[in-house]
Amino acid sequence: MRKAIIENIKTIAYALIIAGLFKTLFFQTFFIPSGSMKDTLLIGDFLYVNKMAYGYSRHSCPWSLCPFSGRILAQEPERGDVIVFKHPVSGADYIKRLVGLPGDRIQMREGQLVINGEAAPLREDGVFVETYKRQGGQGRFPRCINNPRVQGASCDKNRFIETLPNGIEHSVLDIDEVGYSDNTEVMTVPENAYFFLGDNRDNSQDSRWGQTLGGAGMVPAENLIGRAGRVVFSSEGRSLFFFWTWRKDRFWHLIQ
Fold it and tell me: What kind of fold does domain 2-254 have according to CATH?
């Protein structure tokens, strides 16, 4: 009996070690709790992150416990990648789109992204429509250009296709002109750091906002965790376990 208990404990320990190594070295799952990356990512998306994409740092381990500094097997991310990173101050996991590389001069001018003095082209792409209701575990209502007053009504946002200097195209949403976030000063990305924006431009605490204001500020290279790959599945409900609320069109959805 005692021998069987010991063997069971060993089996569980080995399984936990293997799972921990897999999560540390290869892939990590991530849940989207907010709407800052709509419509690329929706509240309730459950996705995986490729941790091999940019090499490894101390943040690659759970609770940032990897016993080394800097990055090993480092590879440079590409502009336009959707990346999970550790917030430089709070240590929380964030997911945003990389738009600024080391040495770039970044500015928002009347809601348009400007990189090194050149505005990233935008073309109209209709309207993103969702239901005006409480969303996800946080139970927040979405922001809309049409200001619906009744739950269940349509909530609209203007959608555009943005083209980055390397030719990567992706959708961005616009709600209204929101002061500083639509008109910023010119910010230079320092060495070994990156500049991130949310695709839902009027609803994202990102590199436009300094870390003392709740934003991400400039994100050090060692804080990168991995590149978002695909949505495994997605739930419209308040919990991932409410399978009857899963979105049928989001299974194995490619993140671009």
Answer: Umud Fragment, subunit A (2.10.109)
